[in-house]
Design brief:
About 40% of the residues lie in helices and about 15% in strands. The chain contains twelve helices and eight strands. The protein has an eight-stranded parallel β-barrel with strand order 1-2-3-4-5-6-7-8, surrounded by four helices. Helix 7 packs across helix 9. By secondary structure, the chain is α/β, with parallel strands linked by helices. The protein has a single domain, classed as TIM Barrel, CATH 3.20.20.70. It binds 1,3-dihydroxyacetonephosphate. The site of 1,3-dihydroxyacetonephosphate (13P) has 14 residues, from strand 8.
């Protein structure tokens, strides 16, 4: 069974609600590709207007974060039930920017992953190494640890539905895309790690994205790799270029 590609935009902290509607309307006709699941992960305040603007299209609206408690005194946080009620299907967890600026750890990422699944949301679980770690030759060890902790207590059925995004930190927002070989090597190692944890069937089904300076020119070769099932796209997801990335195989 061939895995279906999944190409997601991560808008990060960009686009006011008004701008979000305009961007969805601009991109709607450009991101049509029957071979691909298309997701726009948008700031929380943009979810409802973006969802409205995306109605009737192939675009699924995702969130960039969630909190790992159901409700209560957590000022400023967004609960899984809030996302579900708004119609969200996907949620990014453990993006490196959240780890760096908002003190996310492998443990909080695991809690968020479990909570997302408990509410029927599909987590897009981010992992990635720093340039120092790559130069030290510990990339695969590091990523395996991130994956193992993120998947603690995740069931096999849930793991099959998860999406993993491999995003080398040195490639994010730098214009320095990983080589196809580097990206494929790590994505294959992630799949092997999932195989060790859950068996071959889960490893075969789980979808693994590459992220980090993906562009219309780098997407076709990256997404053609056997273990790369699409991308998580930052900067280029805010531009008409995202249409070319989604149509990487046309
Ligand atoms: P860029 O595509 O802007 O490098 O961002 C990648 C990313 O962090 C997606 O989550």
């Amino acid at each position: 069974m061939a895995r279906r590609k999944i190409i997601a935009g991560n808008w990060k902290m960009n686009m006011t609600p008004t701008e979000a509607v305009a961007l969805v309307n601009t991109l709607k006709p450009l991101v049509v590709n029957d071979d691909v699941d298309v997701v726009f992960c948008v700031p929380a305040i943009d979810i409802i207007p973006a969802m409205e603007a995306a109605k009737g299209s192939n675009i699924a609206i995702g969130a960039e974060n969630l909190y790992f408690e159901d409700k209560g005194a957590y000022t400023g946080e967004i609960s899984p039930a809030m996302l579900v009620d708004a119609g969200v299907k996907y949620v990014i967890t453990g993006h490196s920017e959240r780890r760096e600026y908002f003190a996310e750890t492998d443990e909080t990422v695991n809690k968020k992953v479990l909570k997302a699944f408990a509410h029927g949301l599909t987590p897009i679980i981010c992992c990635g190494e720093t340039l120092t770690q790559r130069e030290q030759g510990i990339t695969i060890d590091w990523i395996r640890q991130q994956i193992k902790i993120a998947f603690l207590n995740v069931t096999e059925e849930q793991a099959k539905k998860a999406v993993i995004a491999y995003e080398p930190i040195w490639a994010i927002g730098t214009g320095k895309v990983a080589t196809t070989e580097q990206a494929e090597e790590v994505c294959a190692a992630i799949r092997a790690c999932i195989g060790e944890l859950y068996g071959a069937e889960t490893a075969e089904e789980i979808r693994i994205q590459y992220g980090g300076s993906v562009s219309a020119s780098s997407a076709p070769e990256l997404f053609a790799q056997p273990d790369i099932d699409g991308g998580l796209v930052g900067g280029a997801s805010l531009k008409p270029d995202f249409g070319k990335i989604v149509n990487y195989n046309k």
